[in-house]
Amino acid sequence: MDGKGSSQLPPGFRFHPTDEELIMYYLKNQATSKPCPVSIIPEVDIYKFEPWELPEKAEFGENEWYFFSPRDRKYPNGARPNRATVSGYWKATGTDKAIYSGAKYVGVKKALVFYKGRPPKGIKTDWIMHEYRLSDSRPRPKKHNGSMRLDDWVLCRIYKKKHVGRILEEKEENLGPQIPVTNSDDGGEQHQSPEMEEERSIGTAGYNMGILMLACTVLTWIAIHRWSQRHTKGPKTWPLVGAAIEQLINYDRMHDWLVKYLSKSRTVAVPMPFTTYTYIADPANVEHVLKTNFANYPKGEVYHSYMEVLLGDGIFNVDGELWRRQRKTASFEFASKNLRDFSTIVFREYSLKLSAILSEASFHNREVDMQDLLMRMTLDSICKVGFGVEIGTLAPNLPENCFARAFDTANIIVTLRFIDPLWKIKKFLNVGSESLLDKSIKVIDDFTYSVIRTRKAEIDQARKSHDDKIKHDILSRFIELGENPESNLTDKSLRDVVLNFVIAGRDTTATTLSWAVYMMMAHAHVADKLYSELKTFEEDRAKEDKISLLHYDIEDSKSFNQRVTQFARLLTYDSLGRLHYLHAVITETLRLYPAVPQDPKGILEDDVLPDGTRVKAGGMVTYVPYSMGRMEYNWGPDATLFKPERWLKEGFFQNASPFKFTAFQAGPRICLGKDSAYLQMKMAIALLCRFFKFNLVQGHIVKYRMMTILSMANGLKVTVSRRS
Ligand code: HEM
């Protein structure tokens, strides 16, 4: 709509003044009776008209119209302006905006919305007004002539909302800083309700209030949550994340972190996001979980999902029928005398290989990493005993072993999953640790499937030549079983069998042996006592076998190695059973450094443990051998001391309840390889401690690494000397 003055304006003229221009060039001029740059703003008392009547009063404008307007007082003695028209009223909205010219405060802009009817029941319309006032305009003192005039002039821009162009412009305006004007002269005019700018301001205020209330609620919640835990013996938690933060901070020393809490309370509940881990160290609770109510505490879905990538559906990682079938086959194999005899030969052979490497290192004053050597020894042994293949990682040149490295990496990463809530996302995106895990699994699988292929080919070959030596190992037993189509045993099942036995047979035994060697270094009197037992044993056995012991010179490698070999022949399954102190040394090592330091179980149904602790379905209960071995309530005041004698009564080894000494677990899932493990460990330690003395390399730090097995983070660097 063109106003009356538009005919005098040049073609294409548009009027888009800024707030500052409106104040500086129009309102100021009007107030001081100077001419404006263009005279297109008429003087109209806008409160005498309804907003929709105003466009035709304007001199110029299409979608917005400008007016100079006087303001009247609402009440004779008040400073509030009268904003009523005949049919309605203008109502202020939002925060006033200060207008600056450079750094100088020159005016105020107020937004108003027109309501039809009378307050407070007026109906909001789309008519909007921006009222500009000079900063120095002050309400005139009330004149005695009875004039109701409030101040000289204000400049009003009127427009109707919902015009797209206007909305865009409005948005632009709203981007500018809104500096609230405190010294407002509107006499406490109420600022309420919508219009675009207004809605935004009110929205912002409401939003800020909401944030404030939310923050207060959260802080109160946290405070109450923390206060309610003042008597809790377990770790203090935070809402939602539970103890996850504390667990992450203490991740590298997690086992000792648990010792701290379990020594204060035999059962500790650790809330985690979406679940609770309950840790137990009380033998009565352990018996309940591992035996009495065994069916309620399976490995469970959570454990299975975390470990599946590595252990698949192998015996360690399944429940129910799948577990029962594997347990039956493996138990049968472990009970066989054939396997025991075969194992004794293999363990002796590999212990001798290890002795030869140590002897060589001792003659050349070379440092060795005992943990690495022991891992090689047990890997070679389990591959030979378990799968009938020779992999030769303990060869004198100690060949690089990709499989072992990949296996360790995978083991570390799957353990991390238990406290890393982001692992599924990382796995989905194949980034970070999960990407490394993926690569490691490929290396592991390549090795494992090649073992299976080799063994299958050997079995075929043996069959063709009617050789019946094929049945001494566990893998062959499973391969044979797989030939029955009803067994559903695929190559993938065989892969899982192999990997489960690798973790069972290699890592556990090598780790225990490493800690035992470390204990010998840390407790010289124990090493000496063991040495005496072994010397006596050697002499007794030689007499029994009616052989004379070879003379040897510890400076002569040939005679030294011959004597080592002669001693090894005296070590049989039966004769090793007589070495009670040796048995006690290994068991005491396992008490303080159990190869499986904690072992979680799922919970099928809500239950109450014997000490009254309630556990909820879907959570986890973990018995903690590492803590259990260090608890005074389990072992007396000297619980933390390394004392093999605690296992001996009149020189004979006395076992403890498997629910108190839990290194091999207990109940229906007790370790199947316990005897085999003792056989290998006793064989190795007998040879090592009879003929060698170990010294920790100066500055080498011995500490555990967080993975399912309690291996040493930096290995075990030692120097070796020979014993006479
Ligand atoms: C110091 C050596 C060993 C220790 C401390 C040890 C400890 C354990 C523990 C704590 C479990 C229970 C694991 C779980 O529930 O996830 C277990 C299970 C098992 N162990 Fe051992 N183990 C050792 C050596 C061996 C060896 C050498 C073998 C076999 C070659 C073996 C075979 C098994 C098997 C098959 C199971 C699974 C039992 C089942 O779930 O039914 N272990 N072992």
TrEMBL record:
InterPro entries membership? Cyt_P450, Cyt_P450_E_grp-I, Cyt_P450_sf, NAC-dom, NAC_dom_sf
Which Pfam family is one of this chain's hits? NAM
Ranges for region Disordered: 172-200
Give the protein's cofactors. Answer: heme
Keywords annotated in UniProt: DNA-binding, Heme, Iron, Metal-binding, Monooxygenase, Nucleus, Oxidoreductase, Transcription, Transcription regulation
SUPFAM superfamilies, from UniProt?
A: Cytochrome P450, NAC domain
Q: Where is each NAC domain found?
A: 9-161
The UniProt family comment states: Belongs to the cytochrome P450 family.
Report what the protein is called: NAC domain-containing protein
